[in-house]
Batch of 2 targets.
Target 1
Amino acid sequence: VPEFELIERIRARVGARPDVILGIGDDGALLRAPAGQALVAAMDALVSGVHFPADTPPADIGWKALAVNLSDLAAMGAEPAWALLSLTLPEEDGDWLDAFLDGFMRLADAHRLALVGGDTTRGPLALCVQVLGFVPPGAALRRQGARPGDRLWVTGTLGDAAAGLARWGTVALDDPLVARLLRPTPRIEAGLALRGQAHAAIDVSDGLLADLGHLCTASGVGAELVAARLPASAALAGYPTDQRLAWQLGGGDDYELLFALPEGVDAGELLPPGLDATAIGRIIGEPGVHVLDGEGHQLAVARAGYQHFGAADG
Ligand code: ADP
Ligand code: MG
C-alpha cells in the first residue's frame, strides 16, 4: 500500500468537528479555537518494545497512543478537541493500519476528538500523538498549588497495569490486569469536574510515588500516603501485600488522576457518577514523600517509578 493510500485510509475515518476549518490533506490544519479559552497542548511518543510489548495487538496500540495523551489533557482539566498523529511503520501495511485505527478512533470518537493531521514515515514502529484541548485560563489544573493539610485523592485503582505487564505472555489478552495495561481510561470527565476545586493535579503515568513526587516538587510541599488505603482492583487484591504495594507505588501506566483537595471536600461528590476516588493521604509542609503503615510508621519503599534516562535512587 503506498503512503498516500495509508493517509487516505486515515482521512476516511477522522471525526468531524465544526471547529476544523481544514483537516488532513493540506500542508497544515486550520483550526478555530474558541474565544476566551486557552489552548492546552500535550504530546507523548510510544516506541515499540519500550512503551508497549512488541507483540501488542495494533488496535490496542492505537487506543493506548491516544489514551496516554488524553490523560495529560485530563490532568490539566482540559476538554479534548484535536489530535495530530506521527506514525513510523516498518512497512506500509494497510491491515495493520486499519486495526490500529480501530483502537485509536474508538477512543477519539468517544471524546468527539478530530484527527486533523500528522506524518507518516518508514522505520522501526513508533508513534507520536499530539493532542490539543481547551480550558478557560485560570481554571487549568496544575501540578503546583497543593497546600499543607490538603487531602490526596486518586481515581480508580492503582497497580493493575504493572501487574498486567508482569503477567504479559503468560495469560490471555482479556485477562483483567492485562486489559488495564492495554486500554487505560483517560479520566477526562474527572479532570473537567475538578476545575476550580482541586488545588493541584497530575496523571499517574510513571508510578504513584514518582508522580506524587512531581506534584510535591512543583507545589513546594511533601506528602504522606497510607499504604492500606491505596485502591486495588479485585484482580490485584489476591496478590501478596508486598508485591501489590510495589506495583501500586512504583509501577506505572495507571493513567489515573492524582489530586489535592482542601480538607473536608469529598471527591465523590465532585466526580461524575460511576467513577470512584479514594483518599490516600495528605499534603504536609515538609518536602519528601512518605508511605505509612497501619500504625503510622514509615514503610521503606524501594524505588520510585520508571525513568528513561539514568538511574533513580528514589
Ligand atoms: P507534507 O509533505 O506536506 O508534510 P504529507 O504527505 O506528510 O505532506 O501529509 C499530507 C497530509 O496528510 C497532511 O495534511 C498531513 O497532516 C496528513 N497526514 C500525513 N500522515 C498522517 C497521519 N499519520 N495521520 C494523520 N494525518 C496525516
Ligand atoms: Mg509530512
Note: The longest strand covers residues 79-89.
Target 2
Amino acid sequence: MILYGGAVDGRQNWRTALATALGEANLAASVAMDPEAIPIDEVDYLLLDADGPTVSLAKATRLKAIFSLWAGVDWLVCRDDLPRNVPLVHMAEDGMTRGMCDYVAGHVMRYHLGLDDFLSGRPARDWDTTAPALSSQRTVGVMGLGVLGGAAARLLRDIGFQVSGWSRRRKDIPSITCFAGHEELATFLARSQILVVLLPLTGSTERIVDASLLKQLPEGACLINAARGGLIDDSDLIASLEEGTLKHATLDAFREEPLPRSHRFRSHPRITVTPHIASVTRPETAARAIVRQISRTEAGLPLEHVVDWSAGY
Ligand code: NDP
C-alpha cells in the first residue's frame, strides 16, 4: 500500500502519475490518496510534503520507506515523531533536476553576459565594441554537488564555464575542480566569480553565506541562492551589496515564505527575487522515480538518496 500524504490539491495529478508509473513498471500496489481514510498500519510506503495534512505515524508499523516529495528535508528532519528506523528518502527526479539546471543556467548566463545593462536600456557605455568575456574566461562555483548541484555544475561545464564545486565529501567529476570541507572553502570561493548555492539547510550550513564568506569572493562577484533562505545571513548579504563586494544577488528561497511585500530584498536595486520557483517536483517524473525506488526495495536492493539523520540531509 502506497499512501500519498502530500498537498490536497495535488491528489488528482499524483493519483494519475502513480497509476501510470506503476503500470509502466508492471508493479502491483494499491494507492490511497487520503491519509484520513486509511489506517496507517496498512501503509508500506508513505509520500509526504510540507503542504500535506499532518499524518500521525505512531501506529505506522508496516512502513518500509518514507518519501519526501521535496528535495530538501529540513522541514521533515525537525519532526520528532518520524521513525528513525524507517529509511527517509529525499526527492531526486529528472523533472526537478532539469528545472533546476534551467534556472541556474539562465541566471548564470544573465550575469555572464551582463544582460541587465542592456535590458535596463541604460547601458554603462552608449557604444562599446570590446569583445565580451567568453564563458571559458568566467569562473563559476557551485556550493553543494549533490543531485541538483552536481547536475547544474555539469551543465555549466558543458556550456564552457570554468566550474568549481564544493561539498562535504570529496567528489571526482571530469573537468570540474572539486573542493571539499571547510579547509578548502577559501580556495573554492576565491575562484567563484558567480557563486551558485545548492546546499541543504542543516545545522552545519545555516547562515553559511555570511560576511566572512562573502568577503572571500572575487570583487564584484554575483550570488545565486536556489536552495534555502536560512543559508544566507540576510543583513550580511545586504551589507556586502552596499559595500560593493557583491555586485548582485538572485534569491529564490527565503526565511519567511512567501517573502513579505515589505521585505527589503524586494526593493533592493541589486537583488532579484524569484518566488521559490527554481524547481519543483513534477508528479509524472517524480512518480516514476518513487516507483523505481519501491521496485528496488521489493527486489531487496538498497534505496537511493536516503537521508543521513546525523548529517541532517
Ligand atoms: P543533495 O542532498 O543531493 O546534495 C546536497 C549537497 O550539499 C551534497 O553535495 C553535500 O555534500 C553538500 N553538503 C551538505 N552539507 C554540506 C556541508 N556542511 N559542507 C559542504 N557541503 C555540504 O541535495 P539536492 O542537490 O537534491 O538539493 C539541494 C537543496 O536544494 C535541497 O536541500 C533544497 O533545500 C534545495 N532545493 C531548492 C529548490 C527551489 O526551488 N528553490 C528545489 C529543490 C531543492 P556530499 O556530496 O558530501 O554529501
Note: Residues 71-72, 92, 96, 144-149, 166-169, 198-202, 204-205, 226-228, 252-253, 276, 278-279, 313 surround NDP (CB under 6 Å).
